[in-house]
Design a protein that fits this description.
Distance between the termini: 52 Å
Oligomer: single chain
Helix content: over 70%
Number of helices: 16
Radius of gyration: 27 Å
Number of strands: 0
Largest sheet: none
Length: 271
């Protein structure tokens, strides 16, 4: 009741009194204390209580579940990684959630390799990042969310060509609209190669508006203005999008077709 009223000192005092009065119930009392600290956002204090409890109640499902929740909130991925075998053994969470946690941990490990800001450390970070990627489960190297995270890290490290390759491998195994769009948006410095790859994808998906938009952008970087225009128009015909209208408007303005550019710009604004 004191916790619901937001009286921290009072509810802490209640639990301390309970512990003095009922020492045999210390474990239950501290479990409640950890829960209330967690709900109050006092995560460090909560995890300290839980880790102490864990020494005496290693296989308590409710304790383990709360400890997992606190680690997630604290973003303590190493502690969470160490806890996973115990969570699995005691069936505290299902296999789907374990897979989700493991994937998040892997993404955080990728990020950790790039945490150094010094320019001189970029090459070492790139080597470590790519080494970690090669050891990753195949399903991670084909997962849209993980791949997108990886390529953004590569771009930060000026490894655009490797980023393009990562997208090409992932999309060839597991089609992703988001990755295809990113493939068109970013200048990876391999525009001619990208054009060949994306054109190959188009043979299997000739009516994919996002792929046509992607091809339009790559054609622009190759200065193939006519092809770019055709791709944008085809994309709009299949599924009008603000992005395609905007790109086509900018292209037409570049080509000196100002009136047509303004028409498409108005269509872009109406979406």
């Amino acid at each position: 009741a004191e916790h619901k009223n937001g009286q921290r000192d009072d509810w802490i005092n209640c639990l301390e009194q309970a512990e003095e009065k009922y020492p045999k119930a210390r474990s239950t009392i501290n479990s409640l204390k950890a829960q209330l600290l967690f709900k109050s956002g006092q995560l460090e204090q909560s995890v300290a209580v839980l880790e102490q409890l864990k020494k005496n109640s290693l296989n308590d499902p409710s304790l383990l579940h709360l400890l997992k929740e606190v680690y997630v909130k604290l973003e303590d991925w190493q502690a969470l990684k160490d806890l996973i075998p115990t969570l699995e053994k005691n069936k505290v969470i299902d296999s789907a959630e374990i897979e989700q946690i493991q994937m998040r941990i892997f993404m955080e490990e990728l990020y950790a390799t790039c945490s150094k800001k010094e320019e001189s450390a970029k090459q070492d970070a790139l080597v470590q990042l790519m080494k970690l990627w090669k050891k990753a489960p195949v399903k991670y190297r084909e997962d849209e969310k993980v791949v997108k995270h990886y390529i953004e890290l590569l771009i930060q490290l000026d490894a655009q060509e490797e980023a393009a390759k990562a997208i090409e491998v992932a999309v060839s195994k597991n089609w992703s609209e988001a990755l295809v769009l990113r493939y068109g948006e970013q200048d990876f410095g391999t525009s001619q190669q990208q054009l060949l790859v994306a054109d190959g994808w188009l043979k299997a998906r000739p009516a994919n508006s996002n792929l046509l938009l992607c091809l339009g952008r790559i054609s622009m970087r190759n200065e193939l203005w006519g092809k770019a225009k055709e791709y944008y128009e085809a994309s709009i015909k299949i599924a009008p999008s603000a992005e395609a209208y905007g790109e086509l408007s900018r292209l037409l303005k570049h080509l000196g077709e100002v009136e047509a550019s303004e028409t498409y710009l108005k269509s872009y604004g109406d979406l």
